[in-house]
Amino acid sequence: ASCEKINYLEIKPEALNGLGRVKFYVGDMPAAEELFHSGLHYARLEEDPIMISLALNCIANTVAEAHMAYENTVSLLTESYEISEAAGDKLGAARALINLGVVAQERDEPEQAKGLFEQSLELYRRIGYQYGIAAALKYLGNIALGQNNFQSAEALIQESIEMSIKNGDRRSESDCMRQMGNMARKQNHFVDALDYYSNALAIAQSMG
Q1: Residue 163 exposure: Cα atoms within 13 Å on the Cβ side
Q2: CB 137 within 8 A of CB 130
Q3: I need a labelling partner for 201 at 20 to 30 A (CA). Which of 37, 66, 165, 193 fits?
Q4: Distance (Å, rounded) from C-alpha 45 to C-alpha 98?
Protein backbone atom coordinates (compact mmCIF):
# COMPACT_ATOMS: atom_id res chain seq x y z
CA ALA A 1 0.00 0.00 0.00
CA SER A 2 1.17 3.53 -0.71
CA CYS A 3 1.68 6.00 2.13
CA GLU A 4 -1.32 8.02 0.91
CA LYS A 5 -3.70 5.08 1.36
CA ILE A 6 -2.63 4.20 4.91
CA ASN A 7 -5.02 5.15 7.70
CA TYR A 8 -2.51 6.11 10.36
CA LEU A 9 -5.18 6.35 13.06
CA GLU A 10 -5.66 2.58 12.88
CA ILE A 11 -1.97 1.67 13.03
CA LYS A 12 0.21 1.75 16.11
CA PRO A 13 3.60 3.49 16.11
CA GLU A 14 5.38 0.12 16.06
CA ALA A 15 3.77 -0.76 12.75
CA LEU A 16 4.48 2.66 11.25
CA ASN A 17 8.16 2.36 12.17
CA GLY A 18 8.20 -1.17 10.75
CA LEU A 19 6.67 -0.01 7.47
CA GLY A 20 9.15 2.85 7.41
CA ARG A 21 12.08 0.49 7.78
CA VAL A 22 10.83 -1.57 4.83
CA LYS A 23 10.66 1.58 2.71
CA PHE A 24 14.11 2.61 3.96
CA TYR A 25 15.70 -0.71 2.98
CA VAL A 26 14.22 -0.61 -0.52
CA GLY A 27 15.50 2.95 -0.96
CA ASP A 28 12.18 4.83 -0.86
CA MET A 29 13.44 7.56 1.46
CA PRO A 30 10.53 10.04 1.10
CA ALA A 31 8.00 7.34 2.06
CA ALA A 32 10.23 6.10 4.88
CA GLU A 33 10.63 9.58 6.31
CA GLU A 34 6.87 10.19 6.17
CA LEU A 35 6.14 6.92 7.97
CA PHE A 36 8.76 7.54 10.65
CA HIS A 37 7.40 11.04 11.31
CA SER A 38 3.90 9.60 11.60
CA GLY A 39 5.18 6.95 14.01
CA LEU A 40 6.84 9.67 16.08
CA HIS A 41 3.62 11.72 16.13
CA TYR A 42 1.54 8.86 17.49
CA ALA A 43 4.25 7.73 19.89
CA ARG A 44 4.26 11.24 21.35
CA LEU A 45 0.45 11.14 21.64
CA GLU A 46 0.73 7.84 23.51
CA GLU A 47 3.63 9.22 25.60
CA ASP A 48 5.65 6.09 24.85
CA PRO A 49 9.34 6.96 25.38
CA ILE A 50 10.65 3.71 23.90
CA MET A 51 8.78 4.24 20.63
CA ILE A 52 9.60 7.97 20.59
CA SER A 53 13.29 7.13 20.87
CA LEU A 54 13.04 4.48 18.15
CA ALA A 55 11.19 6.81 15.78
CA LEU A 56 13.77 9.56 16.32
CA ASN A 57 16.53 7.07 15.51
CA CYS A 58 14.77 6.01 12.34
CA ILE A 59 14.23 9.61 11.24
CA ALA A 60 17.88 10.39 11.97
CA ASN A 61 19.07 7.49 9.82
CA THR A 62 16.82 8.62 6.98
CA VAL A 63 18.01 12.22 7.23
CA ALA A 64 21.63 11.07 7.14
CA GLU A 65 21.08 8.66 4.23
CA ALA A 66 18.86 10.87 2.08
CA HIS A 67 20.11 14.36 2.86
CA MET A 68 23.58 13.96 4.43
CA ALA A 69 22.32 16.51 7.00
CA TYR A 70 24.55 15.45 9.86
CA GLU A 71 23.76 18.38 12.16
CA ASN A 72 20.08 17.47 12.09
CA THR A 73 20.99 13.81 12.52
CA VAL A 74 23.06 14.53 15.64
CA SER A 75 20.24 16.62 17.11
CA LEU A 76 17.69 13.84 16.55
CA LEU A 77 19.97 11.14 17.94
CA THR A 78 20.89 13.22 20.97
CA GLU A 79 17.20 13.70 21.75
CA SER A 80 16.66 9.97 21.27
CA TYR A 81 19.51 9.17 23.67
CA GLU A 82 18.27 11.59 26.32
CA ILE A 83 14.73 10.19 26.18
CA SER A 84 15.99 6.61 26.45
CA GLU A 85 18.36 7.48 29.29
CA ALA A 86 15.57 9.17 31.25
CA ALA A 87 13.25 6.20 30.67
CA GLY A 88 15.89 3.61 31.66
CA ASP A 89 15.73 2.18 28.14
CA LYS A 90 19.26 0.81 27.75
CA LEU A 91 18.56 -0.67 24.31
CA GLY A 92 17.35 2.67 22.99
CA ALA A 93 20.29 4.48 24.55
CA ALA A 94 22.78 2.02 23.03
CA ARG A 95 21.10 2.36 19.64
CA ALA A 96 21.38 6.15 19.75
CA LEU A 97 25.04 5.98 20.84
CA ILE A 98 26.06 3.59 18.08
CA ASN A 99 24.33 5.75 15.47
CA LEU A 100 26.01 8.86 16.86
CA GLY A 101 29.27 6.95 16.46
CA VAL A 102 28.48 6.24 12.82
CA VAL A 103 27.84 9.94 12.23
CA ALA A 104 31.13 10.86 13.93
CA GLN A 105 32.92 8.33 11.74
CA GLU A 106 31.30 9.80 8.61
CA ARG A 107 32.51 13.23 9.73
CA ASP A 108 36.07 11.90 10.10
CA GLU A 109 36.09 12.13 13.90
CA PRO A 110 37.51 8.69 14.75
CA GLU A 111 38.28 9.30 18.42
CA GLN A 112 34.80 10.59 19.11
CA ALA A 113 33.34 7.69 17.14
CA LYS A 114 35.44 5.21 19.11
CA GLY A 115 34.22 6.59 22.43
CA LEU A 116 30.59 6.38 21.33
CA PHE A 117 31.00 2.83 20.01
CA GLU A 118 32.63 1.79 23.28
CA GLN A 119 29.75 3.25 25.28
CA SER A 120 27.21 1.48 23.10
CA LEU A 121 29.14 -1.81 23.38
CA GLU A 122 29.13 -1.53 27.17
CA LEU A 123 25.35 -1.06 27.20
CA TYR A 124 24.73 -3.84 24.69
CA ARG A 125 26.85 -6.23 26.77
CA ARG A 126 25.00 -5.20 29.91
CA ILE A 127 21.62 -6.14 28.44
CA GLY A 128 22.98 -9.07 26.43
CA TYR A 129 21.81 -7.83 23.04
CA GLN A 130 23.92 -9.98 20.74
CA TYR A 131 23.21 -8.17 17.46
CA GLY A 132 24.18 -4.85 19.01
CA ILE A 133 27.36 -6.30 20.47
CA ALA A 134 28.39 -7.68 17.07
CA ALA A 135 27.68 -4.34 15.39
CA ALA A 136 29.62 -2.30 17.96
CA LEU A 137 32.60 -4.67 17.69
CA LYS A 138 32.53 -4.35 13.90
CA TYR A 139 32.52 -0.56 14.06
CA LEU A 140 35.33 -0.52 16.63
CA GLY A 141 37.30 -2.86 14.40
CA ASN A 142 36.83 -0.46 11.51
CA ILE A 143 38.16 2.41 13.64
CA ALA A 144 41.21 0.34 14.61
CA LEU A 145 41.75 -0.60 10.97
CA GLY A 146 41.64 3.05 9.95
CA GLN A 147 44.37 3.75 12.50
CA ASN A 148 46.47 0.81 11.20
CA ASN A 149 46.12 -0.95 14.55
CA PHE A 150 45.91 -4.31 12.84
CA GLN A 151 46.16 -6.53 15.92
CA SER A 152 43.27 -4.80 17.66
CA ALA A 153 41.24 -4.61 14.45
CA GLU A 154 41.61 -8.34 13.80
CA ALA A 155 40.58 -9.27 17.34
CA LEU A 156 37.50 -7.03 17.23
CA ILE A 157 36.38 -8.07 13.76
CA GLN A 158 36.95 -11.77 14.43
CA GLU A 159 34.81 -11.54 17.58
CA SER A 160 32.13 -9.80 15.53
CA ILE A 161 32.31 -12.57 12.90
CA GLU A 162 31.86 -15.23 15.57
CA MET A 163 28.86 -13.44 17.04
CA SER A 164 27.35 -12.79 13.61
CA ILE A 165 27.59 -16.51 12.77
CA LYS A 166 26.01 -17.37 16.11
CA ASN A 167 23.23 -14.86 15.47
CA GLY A 168 22.68 -16.13 11.93
CA ASP A 169 23.33 -12.59 10.67
CA ARG A 170 24.76 -13.26 7.22
CA ARG A 171 24.79 -9.60 6.20
CA SER A 172 27.00 -8.69 9.16
CA GLU A 173 29.21 -11.74 8.56
CA SER A 174 29.72 -10.67 4.93
CA ASP A 175 30.54 -7.11 5.96
CA CYS A 176 33.10 -8.36 8.48
CA MET A 177 34.73 -10.59 5.87
CA ARG A 178 35.03 -7.56 3.62
CA GLN A 179 36.69 -5.65 6.47
CA MET A 180 39.14 -8.51 6.94
CA GLY A 181 39.90 -8.31 3.22
CA ASN A 182 40.55 -4.58 3.54
CA MET A 183 42.93 -5.24 6.43
CA ALA A 184 44.82 -7.93 4.52
CA ARG A 185 45.10 -5.63 1.50
CA LYS A 186 46.45 -2.76 3.61
CA GLN A 187 49.20 -5.13 4.80
CA ASN A 188 49.94 -6.27 1.23
CA HIS A 189 48.62 -9.76 1.98
CA PHE A 190 46.86 -9.94 -1.37
CA VAL A 191 46.17 -13.69 -1.45
CA ASP A 192 44.48 -13.51 1.95
CA ALA A 193 42.60 -10.40 0.85
CA LEU A 194 41.22 -12.22 -2.19
CA ASP A 195 40.08 -15.12 0.01
CA TYR A 196 38.25 -12.78 2.40
CA TYR A 197 36.63 -10.82 -0.45
CA SER A 198 35.55 -14.08 -2.11
CA ASN A 199 33.99 -15.26 1.14
CA ALA A 200 32.22 -11.93 1.58
CA LEU A 201 30.81 -12.16 -1.95
CA ALA A 202 29.71 -15.78 -1.53
CA ILE A 203 27.89 -14.97 1.71
CA ALA A 204 26.20 -11.94 0.13
CA GLN A 205 25.10 -13.97 -2.89
CA SER A 206 23.72 -16.71 -0.65
CA MET A 207 21.26 -14.17 0.79
CA GLY A 208 19.69 -13.70 -2.64
Answers
A1: 21
A2: no
A3: 66
A4: 27
